Structures are given as C-alpha cells and as structure tokens.
Amino acid sequence: MYRGNRLFWRLLWAFLLTLLVTAAVMSLLMVMMVRQERSLALENELQVQARDVAKMLEESDDSLFRRWDSGLSNTLNWKIREIRETYGAEVWLVSSGRRVWVLGDTHFDQEQISDPGVVEQVDRVLSGEEIRVQGMIPQLGPYIVTVGVPWRNGRGWVSGAVLLHISTQSLVVDYSDIIADAVLAAAGAMLLGVVLACIIARTQSAPLRQIQRALIDFSQGRMDTRVSIRGDRELEELAEAFNQMAEDLANLERSRRSFVANVSHELRSPLTCIRGYAEGMLDGTIEEADHHKYLGVVRDESKRLTTLVNDLLDLSRMESGVALKREKFDLCELLRQELITFEGSISKKDIEVEVELPEEPLIVNADPGGIRQLMTNLLDNAVKFTPRGGRMGLRLVPEGRLCRVEVYNSGPGIPPEDLPHIFERFYKVDKAHTPGEGTGLGLAIVQKILEQHGQKIRVSEAGGFTTFSFRLALAEDKAK
Question: What is this structure's pTM?
C-alpha cells in the first residue's frame, strides 16, 4: 500500500509541477500582452483627445490665428488642462503657415517651425493625414511621442494641425497595475488545477496499483489473480494484455508441474526396476541361475532411461530456439535410408511394407538431422503399433512447391478421445505405461521439429489405418 501511495504522490507532484510551470509562463505572457494592449489603448485615447481638440477648433472661428494674443475659450481651455493633467501631454496648435502655438493654461506662445524633419511631418498632417512619431521634435528629446491630427475649418479645408506630445514613459503601463490581477487569476487556476490533478493522479494510479497487487500475488504463487479496469481504453488494453499474460503464466505453471510429475514418474519406473533387480541379485533373493535373465531387464531399462534423457535433452534444445541447419538434400534417399534401419524389426513382426517414392530425386531445403529424427520416431511408432502380419507404408507425394510425406500402419488405431492429446509430452495411449512402450516424447519431438520448419503434423484414422502426414518446402530451383 505504501508503494501505491508513493506512486500517487509522484503522479500528483508531476502534475502540479507541470501546472505550476505552465501557469507561470501563461501569466508572464498574459502580463506582457495586457501591458502592450493597454499601451496601445492609451495611445488610441490620446489620439481621440487630439481629435476632440480639433473638433472644438473646427466649431469655433479662426480668430485664434488672426490675433495670437487672443485667449482660449473656456471649453477649449478646460479640455487642454484635462489632457495635461490626465495624460501629462503638451498641446501644440500649428497653422497652415507652419506657425506654432504652444498652449498653456490661460495663454499660448507663438513659434515658427524651421527644422526640415519637423516640417516634413507637419506637412503630412496639414495634408489631412494623422501621424504617430517618436522623437519628432528635437528640442523635446528622443523619448517624446507626437500624435498629430488635422484641424479643419467649417468648409472642410485643413486649417492647421493639433499636436500632442507625451513621454514614452507615460505610455508604458506599470507592471504593478497588472501583476495583481495576473496573480489572482493564476491562484484561481492553480487551485482548480490542484483539485483536477488529485483526481487525475488518483484515476491513473489506481489501475497501476491494482496491477502491482496482482504482480505481488503472482510472486507469491497465486496465479488465479486477474485485474479489471474500466474507463481509459489504453488502460483497458493493458488490463487485457496483463490478464492474457497471467493466463499464459498459469498454463505454463500447470504445464511445468505436469511435466515435472511426468518426468519423475518416467524416471522413477526404470530406476526402481534397476534398483530392485540389482538388490535382489546382491542379497540372493534372485537365484544365480536367473542373473543373466534379470541383467537383460536391467540393460533394457537402462537403455530406456538413456532414451528418455536423450529425448528430454532434444526437446529442451528445440524449445530453447536453437537455429535450424538448413541444407538442400534428397528427401527420397533419406526416407529410404531410414526405412532400411527398421528392416530387422519389420521382418521380426512379418509386416508387409508399402513404399511409394518418386524415382527422381526430390530436393528439399530443411534440417536433415531434424527430419531424420522425425522419421525415426514416426517409423518406430508405425512398427511398434502394427500387429504381427499387418501392413505399414511410406508415401512421398509432390504438391507444387511442397511435398507431402505420409507414414501409415494398420492396427487397432488411436481412440477418438486420445487423438487431441497424442502430441503432448509423456502422453501415452497405453495408460498403464507398459515398460518398453516408449517415453511418450516421440510425437512431441516430431511436432516441435515441424514447428521449427513452419509446418504441422496431422493424424487421421480411416479404413483401419492410422496415418501421420506432414509437408516440407521444396528447394526453390526444384519447385520451379
């Protein structure tokens, strides 16, 4: 449980750290954007104020420029004072002759524009254009922004220009005016994020804790544990894969226990027999005249034990994934050689043999050692289970890019209930495990060899014959 809580806290802190970094970056971007927008809004307000002054001048007469010492109207004077107090801006009025009036509270001073750069910008306004220029007036300094709008008379002609000068510092919004709101918004987002992070961390860690508990059960031998996860599709797929793995492990464990039990039984039988006869001969229970007879039994059981160990080693080697040694060889010749090795056993039981092999060589690309062992096991079974005077056969038939091999024999056949299990390790149709009837590994080895070649072994019962068949791929040049 402690580890599960630790997983929850790791997820939660990861979410919170991500949320904190994201909130900090977003807050910084928001502060910068709001500051820029407010600065632009302040410039737009200043431009609107200049237009208001121009509108007031348009509604009055032009006596202001006919008599420079004429006083301003109360309304215009109030407006200019409001602009200076609110925005800290200076107001200039420029006539069409480029004569400048610097407006004060109750009076204005008269100046003449002569600087070429200033003349150029003023002419733009006098032509009806609105401007926004920094450092336009040299004597005011480089950090003064000038906003200019045209002033028209009653007939719509441009009579002059209204220029508002303001420091760039006055246009910059102070961070303290924005940070408080940004911090408040970030705190609200963090609070909501903490709640959501707790929910998400709990949701994501719960399935992992469930899988963790199941793994602990597996380590303690409880292989029947399964997990049930609903919701997120990826987690559901993980649960399905985990349960499938658990089922495979359970089957493997059952197979392992069965394998150990079978091996123990198969090894104990010949060892018990050998020990019993050896002790009987040593303590005199078995008469000396019978020693030769029982020594033959001990020899046979020793051979059986050796065969069992060799079969187990072969099966283990195949299951470990040892690479095949593929070669091109004549399958017809290999089958003939294998059949010849059983000539003695076949003659002893007076078995009639039917052989159908092509006259021409049939070249396959396979592991000759594995195919030889496979055929030895199949022919050994056929001879073993064919009754005296019965029939057995070997057939090889080309089928396009493949060839089919069949080994069949007459006899009592395999009961239907045993057919699905005959390729299992240590499975015997003879339930009593009669001595001398094999180790029960021969067909399992046959199946494993063919699996390594990408093929399958098939068994069928028809017409009093049991037939084992499989296919092999022909060599490419032969197949063509």
Answer: 0.46
Q: Smallest Cα–Cα separation from 404: which of 338, 463, 357, 337?
A: 357
Cα angle at 432 between 428 and 433, to 5 degrees?
55
pLDDT in tens, 276-300: 888 888 888 888 888 888 888 888 8
Instruction: Give the number of domains in the chain.
Output: 2
From 171, 192, 218, give the residue that closes a domain. Answer: 171
Longest dimension (CA), the chain: 160
Calpha distance 58→332 (Å, rounded): 117
- How distant, in Å, are the alpha carbons of 39, 178, 181, 186 from that of 32? 11, 9, 13, 15
Q: Which DSSP letter does residue 323 get?
A: P
Radius of gyration (C-alpha) of the chain in whole angstroms? 52
Kindly state whether residue 36 falls inside one of the protein's structural domains: yes
Average pLDDT over every residue of 128-156:
83
Task: Kindly state whether residue 187 falls inside one of the protein's structural domains.
Answer: no
Domain assignment of residue 117, given as a range = 2-171
In a domain, 365, yes or no: yes
Q: How far apart are CA 238 and CA 229, in angstroms?
A: 9
Residue 251 lies in a domain: no
Two tokens at 316? 């283990």
Last residue of a domain, one of 148, 171, 194: 171
Q: What is the pLDDT of residues 81-136, one digit of tens each?
A: 888 888 888 888 887 777 776 665 444 445 666 778 888 888 888 888 888 888 88
Q: Give the type of residue at 337.
A: Q
CATH number of the domain enclosing 474 = 3.30.565.10
